[in-house]
Amino acid sequence: MMAKQNKIHEPPFHIVKRPAIAGWKSVLIRAIAIIAALGVSSLVLLILTKKSPLEAMKLVYEASFGVYNKSIDKGFFAQIFTGRKFWAMLQELCMLLVIALAVTPAFKMKYWNLGAQGQVLFGGLCSVAVMFYLNNGFWATHKWLVLVLMLIAAVVGGVIWAVIPALFKARWNTNESLFTLMMNYIAIQLVSCMINVWVPNGSQVMGVVNQNSKIGWMPAMVFPDAWGMHPSAKNYFFNILIVLCLTVVMFVYLRYSKHGYELSVVGESVNTANYIGINVKKVIIRTLVFSGLLCGVSGFLLVSGTDHSITTGLDRGYGFTAIIVAWLAKFNPLMMILTSFLIVFLGKGASDIAMNMGFNESVGDIITGIIIFFIIGCEFFINYRIVKTHREG
Amino acid sequence: MKKALKVIALILALAMVVAFAACAGKTEPTTEPAGTDTADTTAEGTEDTTAENTAADLSNIKFGLICLHDENSTYDNNFIMAAKEAQAALGLSDDQVVIKTNVDESNACYEAACDLVELGCNVIMADSFGHESYMKQAAQEYPEVQFCHATGTSSKSAGIANFHNAFATIYEGRFLAGVVAGLKLNAMIEAGDITAEQAVIGYVGAFPYAEVKSGYTSFFLGARYICPSATMKVVYTNSWFDIDLEKTAAENLINDGCVLISQHADSEGAPKACEAANVPNVAYNIDTSSIAPNTALVSSRINWAPYYEMVIKAVAAGETFATDWIGTIATGSVELLDLSANCTEDAAAKVAEVKAKLEDGSLKVFDCSTFTVKGENLTEYTADVVDEGDFVPETNVILTDEATGITYFAESDEQFRSAPYFDILIDGITELG
Predict the structure, then answer these.
(1) What is the rounded distance in angstroms from the CA atom of residue B419 to the CA atom of residue B153?
(2) Residue A11 domain-assigned?
(3) Among B residues 102-121, those touching chain A with beta carbons less than 8 Å apart
(4) Closest Cα partner for A346 from A60, A32, A95?
(5) pLDDT digits (tens, 9 = 90+) for B190-233
(6) Any chain A CB within 8 A of the CB of B134?
(7) Which residue range(s) make up the domain with A167?
(8) Which pTM value belongs to this model?
(9) What ipTM was predicted for this assembly?
(10) Which chain A positions have a beta carbon within 8 Å of B31's beta carbon?
């Protein structure tokens, strides 16, 4: 009987969960995944463009670090540091990173917050409203005050948008994924609606606010002229600095604070949390306040330091990409710098390849998709191993 | 056992890497010559046409185009097609024309413009209204590069020497398309398919914005010029590009009794809905005869190639060019694409006749005697022509032509600006909620 069953049903391999994996092994598996991903995407590029993958790799690099020009009397690293591409890449990286930071505490608590998009948008909307209305007289001479008010407005907006579904979750145990997702649509429509109110010509385009007076704009960093920094470096500097500081704060909060510990216990098991006397409802709401706060800050940085305007696409789709970033980094904020770099670096590279080789931007998305697929796929091999079935009969 | 597995895994991984490397290695040499071949042929073509067409040396020109969407949007595709037409006409090589698609109306547009500058572009064009502020920002940063922006409103008031706006008197093209539609409506009335009162046109518009309102009003006036009983219903999709919304909007209009559909939204949604329901359709920026062989009538289009060519030649010669440029029928910027077999037989002759009248000025599209607003003829209308970001109308745009004595709404007029500012709802047109 046994023998018969074995013959029919048992596959030659089966999957076993790994108890733990040596550090070098997981690094090796990830490295293989990245190499394989680059291999497959090169192959796709080769088929599509008939150009050598090396040339494509060069374009990917240059999309984030700029073209090295030997004829300029400036070192290799100095050229990268003073050039625009590097700062534009850092800026994108930080915008993705800050939203990833925002979703992290909730996800670590196993609260599936898919509403980062809406929280960023609503925070941004509150921010741009302040910028739009406080643009004359007193405010023109107190620009810093406008900035502070914009930040406060954005944070309040982000928190409101995050806390509504959290209250429902804590009170009535509603499904937070659906709820937060729906909140996104409300935020998108609110943005459209407010643009219509502010811009009566019906074009649905807000345009840059305070382009001449620069009220409500993130101040530019002052570098010594001798350095020859590109204006982008000056404009994006504070955005980048703020996000990097927040990253450290989040790392410390999750790793060393009591709050951080509580939310990971709630994430592991609500029953355990109840048993050891953690007030789960309070933790849920508090964590979401923190998430919303950071989404608000993202909205503020996108409005004040980046677009100086608002569209329904203010969040650049990062509300969702951020989830991948956070997850890949295993919710470790410092690792998120790496994962968001990876995604931005590849995305920029792929989009430049598409442009340079006369392709639709979508080719870039395909390449990024392939690479993310491999990187996420390799997690399977880190968590499980494939074992040859041991036949007894 | 474990060791064996490790070894197998490693070998497999290595094999994969080697296989990829081998693939790459093998195909490289074979594809390289193919690449150079095509480069050679275009280079040859370049020499011939350059010699024929232009005296100025265009070899230093690099033209960059920033598009909001990609080729799937009829609007953006119209800009891309024109870039290819201009490239062919001027004999530019493929390297001299760079196109960036799917660029949002955000800081991404500024970054895209900077990318193009760093690639060596000396003329950069952006196609969407919301790109304007970011193009201005880039223009201020790179004064040696010319920045051009379609549909924009602020170049005259911005005072940035290397920032330019452009648009065309497409309302004339719309009017001509309206004439074709009017003839079709008349034919339907004569055949007894509909009564005169049932000559209702449906229009799918993107936003309640002057560019759209000016477009449908001129189209409607063209139709009513031929078919006096025509009326029109307009719905907005509140999106420039949404296939499903546009399709549903057209279907709803058809169910609502509209017997002819036109649109100012950038997908193929409405023409496809018309083909399915067998309702004649007038398109914009795209030849729909292939996707709607039984129902497509005609399409009006802004041909951007003449503008591109003018700008490229000016930059090559080191000359300045218009801060705010208005394309016309005469410059070849306003076109009617080929009339399809679904049009009435007399359409070509009638279009030619009306076009001649528009060109000699004896007919004005927005002739105030041909339409009323709330029952009255317009004698004065202040529009927000000077864009200072205040949305306050300040300029009277109703003029009287001295030669013909016609009082008309001077849309896209030389003394005002290129981008449309006709934003009035005239009698005969209903906007549906």
Answers:
(1) 6
(2) no
(3) 102, 104-108, 111, 114-115, 118
(4) A60
(5) 999 999 999 999 999 999 999 999 999 999 999 999 999 999 99
(6) yes
(7) 24-65+84-376
(8) 0.84
(9) 0.86
(10) 46, 50-52
